[in-house]
Structures are given as C-alpha cells and as structure tokens.
Design a protein that fits this description.
The chain has 246 residues and is an alpha/beta fold. The chain has two domains: 2-166, no CATH class; 173-245, no CATH class. The protein is built from ten helices and eight strands. The chain has helices spanning 13-26, 54-81, 92-101, 104-115, 123-130, 132-147, 149-152, 155-166, 207-217, 232-239, and strands at residues 2-9, 32-38, 42-49, 120-122, 173-181, 184-188, 219-224, 243-245. A hairpin with a 3-residue loop joins strand 2 (32-38) and strand 3 (42-49). The mean pLDDT is 89.
Length: 246
C-alpha cells in the first residue's frame, strides 16, 4: 500500500478537506483509506491506497497540492506585503489574480521539485524554509505592485498592467466555453467537459468570478454562449483577441 501525509495549519484546512472530497469520488473503485486528524493548530491528512494505482494517485495529489499552495500561500504572501490599501481599489481582484498566476508554470515546477520525493509534506515548513528563492521572486511582483500603485487606480493603465502580467501566463487550456446555467457561470473545455479547476474561485453569477476564472484558466480561445452582466468592458479589454461570441 502507498501512504501519503499532508500537514497544514488550521487556517488552510480547506486544502486537505477539499482533497479528501475529490479523492473520495476518484478512488471509489479502489481499496483506499483517508483520514484527517485534528491537532491543536493543524490538520494532518492521511491517505493509503493500493500500490497498483500509486503513480496515478500520486500525480493527482501532487498537482492538486502544488496548485493550492500557489493559490492560497502566494495570494496571502502578496497581500501581506502590499504597502497600500487595496480594499478600496475597484476590481483589484483581477490584478491580484494575474499576480498569482504570473509565472505559474515555473512556480509549479519549483514547488513540485521540493515535494515530489516526500511521503509527508509539511506545508508551513515548505513555505517558510523550502522555497525561499521562489518567495524572493514573488516579492519582485509585490514591488511591481507597490511601485505602480498610482497606475492601478487608473482604468486605462490598470488594464495595461494586468495585460502585461497576463502576457507571462502560459495558456493552460485550448478553449473555454462559457455558459450561464443554474444562476452562475460555468466553464466547459473544447470537448464539452465541465471544468472544475483547483484555481477557480467559488462559483457565482458575478462578473468578477467570470473574469478571475478566465485569468486563472488562461485559455487560448474563449467562446461566450450567454449574455454577460455588467463588466464586459474589462472582459473585452483583457481578452478581446481571444473572444468569440456564439
């Protein structure tokens, strides 16, 4: 049997609880066991699975784990080091999402290299001691934001800053089809498979969710199959050459 453990602080407990839910479905036909143990200030996630599916499961767990470290830890690191009040900046989440996704593939490779051979991952220790060079790179993004605070407050230059960041985000999917179903935006790939990506925010009918999701997915082509709400200015400014209205 293959055994794997993840230890996270309680404030990031969502990482292991969501993983447990995902694997419960994906591993239903295999012999396996999952548990989350609660300690004073952390959760310990434990997984045991048949060796026959070790490689497949390990790849899925590592991909999920790296994505979530980038999503939660990089985001909190950026916000902690900003030197201005971002709460009053209209549509700041677009800029933040672009910062998080900037150099995503390189971030992923560096983190994966640090955890690929471990059977137990202590996420806080990894963040505090294992990826110092990566955090130095993230700090350069924070400096970019702090030094360009004036331009973030201006609609035109705000868009240009986001587009600059997006130019360094590799395409993650070829095509995203956008539909409005069940009172929320939903995304499907070129084969009409539902996209449930780890980097997406909680689904909603909000245009901020739509634009933040498209920044995260970084598609080569976007097909819109529904009416948009209010924020199509930013959608077309950021993705104009990729959009096809169906």
């Amino acid at each position: 049997m293959w055994k794997y453990n993840i230890v996270v602080p309680k404030e990031y407990g969502i990482i292991v609880y969501r993983l447990k839910s995902i694997l419960k479905n994906n591993l239903s036909k295999y012999r396996h066991a999952q548990a989350i143990l609660e300690e004073s200030d952390k959760y310990k996630y434990c997984l045991i699975v048949e060796e026959d599916v070790e490689n497949h499961v390990k790849a899925e767990v590592l991909s999920y784990l790296v994505d979530n470290i980038i999503y939660f830890y990089k985001k909190d690191y950026i916000l902690k080091n900003l030197k201005f009040d971002y709460n009053n900046i209209k549509n700041f989440t677009y800029f933040l999402k672009a910062l998080i996704c900037f150099d995503y593939q390189l971030d992923k490779e560096i983190i994966l290299d640090k955890i690929i051979h471990s059977s137990t991952v202590y996420i806080d220790s990894l963040f505090n001691f294992g990826i110092k060079k990566l955090k130095d790179k993230w700090y350069e993004l924070v400096l970019l934001a702090n030094e360009n605070y004036f331009y973030i407050n201006n609609d035109e230059t705000f868009v240009q800053l986001i587009k600059f960041l997006m130019s360094n985000i590799d395409y993650r999917v070829n095509t995203v089809n956008v539909y409005y179903k069940d009172n929320r935006y939903q995304f499907f790939d070129q084969n009409n498979n539902y996209i449930d990506d780890y980097l997406l925010d909680y689904p909603s009918n909000d245009d901020n969710f739509l634009i933040n999701s498209l920044i995260s997915l970084s598609p080569k082509k976007i097909k819109i199959h529904c009416e948009l709400n209010n924020n199509d200015y930013y959608l077309y400014e950021l993705f104009n050459e990729r959009i096809e209205k169906c």
